[in-house]
Design a protein that fits this description.
The protein is an alpha+beta fold. 23% of the residues lie in helices and 31% in strands. It has helices spanning 3-15, 21-30, 34-43, 231-234, 263-292; strands at 54-56, 63-65, 80-82, 90-101, 104-112, 116-118, 142-147, 150-151, 159-165, 172-182, 190-197, 203-209, 223-227, 237-242, 251-256. Strands 1, 2, 3, 8, 9, 10, 11, 12 and 15 form a nine-stranded antiparallel sheet that branches. A six-stranded antiparallel sheet has the order 4-5-6-7-13-14. Helix 1 (3-15) crosses helix 3 and helix 3 crosses helix 5. The longest helix is centred in the last third of the chain and has 30 residues, at 263-292. The structure holds calcium ion (CA) (2 copies). One calcium ion (CA) binds at residues 87-88, 113-114, 126, 149-151, 183. The site of one calcium ion has 6 residues, from loops.
Length: 293
C-alpha cells in the first residue's frame, strides 16, 4: 500500500459518520497498517510529504523521518574522488566497518553516478524504479539516495566522493554526489550525500542542493528510499518519494530501525494505545454508572 493509498484510506475512514477512533483502529489493524497509520496520520495533519513527516515501518522495521536537524558533512575537499566525467557508471569501496542493512553485514558497498547505492553488486541503471512495485534492473539490496539519471561530464560538474570518518565504534561512511548534472544536461547542479553509521546502522540522506533548474528539481524525477532483495514483493521497502518534487534543499532524512523520534511518541501512544485506554476508561465509567442504577 502506498502512502497515497493510506492517506486516501484514512481520509475515507475519518469522514465516515459512525466511525469512531476504535473502529478506525480496528479497520487499520485489519489492513495490517497501524504502524503506518500512526505516522501517516501525523503527516495528514500537514499537507503531505513535502512537509515534515515520518513513514514506515516497513516489513523489516525501518522507519524514515525528516523531523531531524539538517546536517551535511562536506567531504568534497577530503574524500576519495571517483566517477568524475562519467554518465552511468559505478564503483565500490570499503566501508571501513560492518554495516548492517536488512539484517546482513556488509563491509563493501557499490554506488553509481546516478545516486544509487547497492550491496553485494553494482547497478549503474539510470532508470529509477518505484521500489514499492518494481525491482530495479539489478535485484540487490539498495539505497536510492536520489536515484535519477545524473552525469558528471558537463562543464562545471564534479564527481562522487567517499570517506570513512570517526573513530572505531563510531564511524561513518559518507558518499557524496557533488555538483551532479542531469543527463544530457541541466541548467544547475545538485549536491547530496548519504551517511552509513557504525553501531546504530542508521542511514542519513542529506540534500544540500536539489535544484537542477529543470524537471529533476526537488526529486521530481528521482527515487528516494530503501529496499531489500525482492523488496517490491516482500514488504522490505521504504520509499520516501518517487518522481515527486518533495525533497527540499537543506533537508535530512534518517532511516533507522530505532524508535521514531520524540514528536511522534505522543501521537504514537494515542493511536496505538491511547484510544484503547480512553475506551477502557469510558467503559469503566459506564460500568460505574450502571452499578449506581
Ligand atoms: Ca546518468
Ligand atoms: Ca542547483
Amino acid at each position: 500500500m502506498t502512502r497515497f493509498q493510506v492517506r486516501k484510506k484514512l481520509r475515507k475512514a475519518s469522514t465516515g459518520k459512525t466511525l469512531t477512533g476504535f473502529s478506525l483502529r480496528k479497520k487499520l489493524l485489519k489492513a495490517g497498517f497501524v504502524a503506518t497509520f500512526t505516522v501517516v496520520g501525523a503527516a495528514t495533519l500537514t499537507t503531505g510529504q513535502a512537509q515534515a513527516a515520518t513513514i514506515g515501518a516497513d516489513a523489516y522495521g525501518y522507519t524514515a523521518t525528516d523531523e531531524i536537524p539538517y546536517t551535511f558533512q562536506d567531504i568534497s575537499g577530503t574524500g576519495t574522488r571517483v566517477l568524475n566525467g562519467v554518465d552511468d557508471s559505478s564503483t565500490s569501496a570499503n566501508v571501513g566497518f560492518n554495516f548492517n542493512f536488512y539484517g546482513t553485514n556488509y563491509n563493501n558497498v557499490s554506488f553509481s553516478s546516478n545516486g544509487l547505492i547497492s550491496f553485494g553488486g553494482s547497478n549503474s541503471n539510470f532508470v529509477n524504479a518505484n521500489l514499492t512495485t518494481t525491482s530495479p534492473s539489478v535485484n540487490l539490496p539498495s539505497i536510492a539516495v536520489l536515484w535519477d539519471d545524473w552525469q558528471f561530464f558537463q562543464p562545471g560538474a564534479d564527481a562522487v566522493y567517499y570517506q570513512t570518518t570517526g573513530t572505531a565504534g563510531n564511524r561513518q561512511f559518507i558518499t557524496q554526489w557533488n555538483l551532479a548534472n542531469g543527463f544530457s544536461s541541466s541548467p544547475s547542479t545538485v549536491t547530496f550525500q548519504s551517511v552509513l553509521f557504525e553501531g546504530s546502522n542508521d542511514i542519513l540522506l542529506s540534500y544540500q542542493d536539489v535544484d537542477s533548474g529543470d524537471f529533476r528539481s526537488l526529486g521530481g524525477d528521482s527515487t528516494v528510499g530503501i529496499r531489500d532483495v525482492n523488496g517490491q514483493s516482500n514488504g522490505r521497502n521504504l520509499q520516501w518519494s518517487f518522481n515527486s518534487p518533495v525533497i527540499r534543499n537543506a533537508e535530512s532524512i534518517r532511516i533507522s530501525t530505532q524508535p521514531v523520534p520524540e514528536p511522534f511518541t505522543i501521537l504514537g501512544s494515542l493511536t496505538a494505545g491511547g484510544i484503547g485506554v480512553a475506551l477502557r476508561r469510558k467503559r469503566q465509567q459506564q460500568e460505574k454508572e450502571t452499578a449506581k442504577v
